[in-house]
Structures are given as structure tokens and as C-alpha cells.
Design brief:
This protein is an alpha/beta fold. Helices cover 21% and strands 17% of the residues. Helix 2 crosses helix 3.
Length: 461
């Protein structure tokens, strides 16, 4: 790609990715100044950017992850259209106020060495997504309380002794991850010591890979103990910090999550792995289940992307919503925030049976601290409001469904209130959805039975 750039063959390009051991910013990039909107320089050896970077006047998105930066470059703040900045996995210790673009919407500083953020971060009114996991932060600027558009916040694996009170007043905050901080340590340790079956590595026969995420790799496997033989999924954790947090925090939440028909069953913890890797044995997903949606795009930022032809019957929409509300209510009763309650983390079949997966952003809270516990739960309720809105937008309306649709819309509005303290908790949401529950689409089988049966064939990816 660099050779093509130097040869002038990329004229008019609006997107460019270069990962070829660069130690200096290639000046040839400025030939694309009139068109370039997305620039990805991740995976190089860069430690600075040129002072005339603003010549890329249309630049909206810049990735410089996995480089050698020790400071977020101040020149970024001079780029008028720059809204998404990604400097994950550098050695950044300093974030000067001058480095914050005026149109900043999405900032990724995961896995660095940042101990302090500038107060000016709270003066970026477009800020929606802030990813800070894996740093050395003990606090956040109180000015962030003014960021009324902030919806996703990742502060896991830092040095927080507590969450700031103003966090619970943010009107749109929906997806919060804070595991791996000192104030969570005892809960995570206790969860990892929860009684669960030990499954020897020699009892497992790994087959093909089913999927891979930031926290681990999942294989289809056969689990054989004595005469008992089961098809299962095996998740082996990588151990490195992810955008959401630490893999051992995810493992703790999976174990503590326990049994529920709309969660993925965990059969046991792997012991005696030859490299000492942590892992879980889980149920295998039935082929009928598919992801409800795809993850957010650069443009959508915090909202999932659905296939253009996605439609739901009223029955299916209610079943999906009820299953996820029930799973969230169950997790909250265990003192767990899912942290990533999104359609792209939900598996569903045509009948509408739904399974909530991916605990990478899960965090623990103390249920006995009722005020704080309910405030955290209501943050997740807003995430559910986004899901419910997406279901309603794609729901096939009929003349006899208008009353139910109106009731769902009213529930969605209550869950989405900017006054977080006025939102219902999931127990109330579940009861409201139960009143709308209709007959299962699978003749002769109740919806609950379908969910329980499907759990035998589920995997979390």
C-alpha cells in the first residue's frame, strides 16, 4: 500500500491503512488532503505526528494504536473535523488539553499509562464514547459531568477506589465497565472462588475454532468424563487487557452469573492446562441462533447495525425483550452489571428466544448498598431502552397489535428517561413484558422450555 501511495496510485482515496513498520509519518499522505477521511496507522513504530497534520482537512477518524507514542499529540486538537481518535496500546502517559479535537466524539486510550486526564475533556459536548481501560487513573475530571451525550464509558483495570457520584447523573450513560479496580477486587476474588466443577484438560478434545475475541478463543470440543460424552464449547482466555477490561474479570462474572434460561450455561472451569491458561467449558450454540445485530459502525458510534431487511413479528420482539430483561434482572440480583447490553451480544432464533452473551464488560456491585446498586442498574436500563427502541423500529405492525405496540413504546420511553432515577428497574420491566407475552411460536412447546432446551447447545462468543 505504501508503494502505491508513493506511486500516486491512491489519488482520491477517502480511506487509508498503513501498517509496515513506519518510524515516521509518510509525507506522501498529504497528497490525499482533499479526500482522506479515515487514516489507520496502527501497528507501526511511530512516536510523533507532523505539525501540519491539519492539512488533512477532511480527516474524521485517526487510528494510531500499537505504536510508540508517550504523549497524545497536541496537533490533534487543530484538526477541525476529527471526531474519532484511537491510540490504544501505546505508552502514553500524558494527555495535554491541546490534543483534544473540538469535534471529539469517540476517544480510545485503552492500555496505556495515563494517570490523569485534563479537565478540558469535559468541554467536548459531542463526546459519546470514552474508552480508558488499562491505565493508571484514580479519578476522572469532574467536568465530565457536563458531557450530556456520553453513552459508553470504559474505566476497567485502573486504580479507582470508588465511582464518582456525578457518574450516576449522566442522562445518557448506558454502557459502563469498571471491573479490575481496587474497589471491585474482593467481589471478583470471591466470584472466582465460587464453587464450580473442575474439568481436567485431559477430559477435553478440542475441535475447530468457533470464534475469537479480544479476551479469548473459543473452540468446539468434546468433553468426556467416564462414559459421559458431551459436545461443548471451550473458551480459553488470553490474559491481556481488552477494550472492556481484564479477562479474569470476565471469567469471574461468567462463573457468578449462575443458571438462567436466557444466559449461556457454564459447566465448569478448566484445570491442568499445559500452559496454565484459564478457561471455561460452556454449552454449545444451536445452529438456529444468530446474532441479533452487528456492532456499531464509525458513523453510528454507539448504536448497533441491523441488516437492512431485519423485521420482527410482535411475538418475537416481545420474547426477545422479555428474555433479555429477565436475564438482566437475574444478573443484577447476583450483583453483576453486564456492561455491554447490546443487540450484537444477543443470540436469537426465529421464534424470538434470546440468549445474552459476552461478559467482557461485566462488573460487580454491592447489592447491600441499595442506593448505589439501583443507580448502577438504572444505567443498564437505558441500554435496554436502546434495544427496545431498535426492536420497535423493526416490528411488523398489524391492526390488532397497536395496543401492545403502544404499551411497548411507553415502556421504552420510561426506560430511556434522562432523569435516571425515574427509570424502572428490571423486575418491573420484566413484569410489564409478561403482561404482553403471547403464545409461543413453536407449537406444543412453551417459550421457557425452548430457552432451557437451547441452553444445551449454546456458546458465548
Amino acid at each position: 500500500m505504501l508503494e502505491q501511495l508513493r506511486a500516486g496510485k491512491l489519488a482520491g482515496s477517502w480511506r487509508l491503512k498503513l501498517s509496515c513498520g513506519l518510524q515516521e509519518f509518510p509525507r506522501e499522505i498529504f497528497a490525499l488532503a482533499d479526500t482522506l477521511e479515515i487514516l489507520d496507522l496502527s501497528g507501526n513504530a511511530l512516536s510523533s505526528l507532523p505539525d501540519d497534520l491539519p492539512r488533512l482537512r477532511k480527516l474524521r477518524i485517526l487510528f494510531c494504536s500499537s505504536n510508540h507514542f508517550t504523549e497524545l499529540p497536541a496537533v490533534l486538537g487543530q484538526c477541525p473535523q476529527l471526531s474519532m481518535v484511537g491510540f490504544k496500546a501505546n505508552q502514553i502517559r500524558s494527555v495535554p488539553a491541546a490534543a483534544l479535537p473540538p469535534m471529539l466524539r469517540w476517544l480510545i486510550l485503552t492500555d496505556n499509562q495515563i494517570a490523569e486526564l485534563p479537565a478540558e475533556l469535559g468541554q467536548r459536548p459531542q463526546l459519546q464514547k470514552l474508552m480508558l481501560a488499562g491505565n493508571q487513573l484514580q479519578s476522572l475530571p469532574q467536568t465530565l459531568a457536563a458531557c450530556g451525550r456520553l453513552e459508553l464509558l470504559r474505566i476497567a483495570a485502573n486504580r479507582f477506589a470508588a465511582l464518582p457520584d456525578w457518574l450516576f447523573e449522566l442522562p445518557r450513560l448506558s454502557w459502563l465497565a469498571y471491573a479490575g479496580n481496587p474497589f471491585c477486587a474482593s467481589s471478583e476474588t470471591a466470584a472466582l472462588h465460587t464453587s464450580i466443577a473442575d474439568i481436567g484438560w485431559d477430559e477435553l478434545q478440542l475441535q475447530h475454532k468457533l470464534g475469537e475475541g479480544a479476551s479469548g478463543v473459543i473452540h468446539r470440543a468434546v468433553w468426556q468424563r467416564n462414559e459421559s460424552r458431551h459436545d461443548v464449547a471451550v473458551k480459553l482466555f488470553k490474559g491481556a487487557v481488552t477494550s472492556d477490561g481484564l479477562p479474569h474479570s470476565e471469567m469471574a462474572a461468567c462463573i457468578r452469573g449462575g443458571e438462567h434460561p436466557n444466559l449461556i450455561a457454564v459447566h465448569g472451569r478448566i484445570v491442568d492446562h499445559p500452559r496454565g491458561d484459564d478457561g471455561l467449558v460452556m454449552s454449545l450454540v444451536d445452529d438456529r441462533f444468530r446474532n441479533l445485530a452487528g456492532p456499531p459502525s464509525f458513523d453510528s458510534c454507539t448504536r448497533d447495525i441491523y441488516a437492512a431487511d431485519t423485521k420482527f413479528t410482535l411475538n418475537a420482539a416481545i420474547r426477545i425483550a422479555l428474555g433479555i430483561a429477565s436475564a438482566a434482572r437475574h444478573l443484577h440480583a447476583q450483583g453483576i452489571m453486564h456492561g455491554d447490553l447490546y443487540a450484537h451480544n444477543i443470540l436469537r432464533c426465529e421464534e424470538g428466544n434470546a440468549l445474552l452473551g459476552d461478559f467482557g464488560a461485566a462488573s460487580f456491585f454491592a447489592p447491600e448498598d441499595r442506593r448505589r446498586a439501583e443507580a448502577l442498574q438504572r444505567i443498564e436500563v437505558r441500554a435496554f431502552a436502546c434495544l427496545l427502541e431498535e426492536l420497535l423500529e423493526r416490528c411488523c405492525a398489524t391492526d390488532d397489535s397497536q395496543t401492545a405496540l403502544s404499551t411497548l413504546a411507553d415502556l421504552q420511553a420510561r426506560c430511556a428517561q434522562e432523569n435516571a432515577s425515574a427509570r424502572p428497574l428490571f423486575a418491573e420491566i420484566e413484569q410489564a413484558l409478561l403482561t404482553l407475552q403471547v403464545a409461543p411460536a413453536v407449537k406444543g412447546v412453551c417459550a421457557e422450555d425452548v430457552c432451557y432446551n437451547a441452553r444445551r447447545d449454546i456458546v458465548s462468543v
